[in-house]
Amino acid sequence: MRKSTLLAGACALGIAIAAPAAAWRIVFDPTNYSQNLLSAARALEQINNQITSLQNEAAMLQNMAKQLQRLDFSSLGQITGSLQRIDGLMGQAEGISFDMNEMDAAWKEQFPEGYEAATTITDMVGESQKRWQSAMQAFRQTMRVQSQVVENVQADRGLLADLVTQSQGAVGALQAQQAANQLLALSTKQQLQIQDMMAAQYRAEALEQARDAQSEEAARESITRFLGSGKAYTPR
């Protein structure tokens, strides 16, 4: 009886000792592991896509900033300054000016349509002297305008080189457009000053032609007065 009791106790103890080892055994599930690994890979891919999207947006914003960056160069002062110097010379026209009202008044004085009987030969000589002075002043003013235009053209060479450099080095559409606008303004300025030069030249030529025509009329009037009616001498 005692041996049986000891044997049963030993068996029970063996079971009790073996039971914890079975309870802590780790079980590996390949299916669950693969699913977890796939989920982690998908999550990582989403994160990478988000990072790429943010990088693209940042690059787009930087590109937009470059496109809107203003050109740190302006030729407006030099262009307007050149035109103002030409305008100043045009405003210094003497004798027959470019102002419509003043031109009409001076023209009527220096180029009368006819000579009154009270006009003496001395008066005609004085008027002829005024016309000669007006013509000389016109040619002088034309040469001054031409000289200023030549000086402006020489300065425009450096300005043109600067604008081309700015255009080639533009980092965005706005800078390129601003450089193109300044190049267009430079071209417009050159055309305007050429027009002024032509106006001064044509004015001088017109005055000279008018002076020649008026001189012919004055000479005709002088001859007519010298000869009189042709009845001053009656042969016997």
UniProtKB/TrEMBL annotation:
Recorded coiled-coil stretches: 37-71
The keyword Coiled coil is assigned to this record: yes
Keyword tRNA-binding: no
Keywords: Coiled coil, Signal
Domain of life: Bacteria
Signal peptide range: 1-21
NCBIfam families, per database record: PRK13874.1, TrbJ_Ti
Protein name from the UniProt record: P-type conjugative transfer protein TrbJ
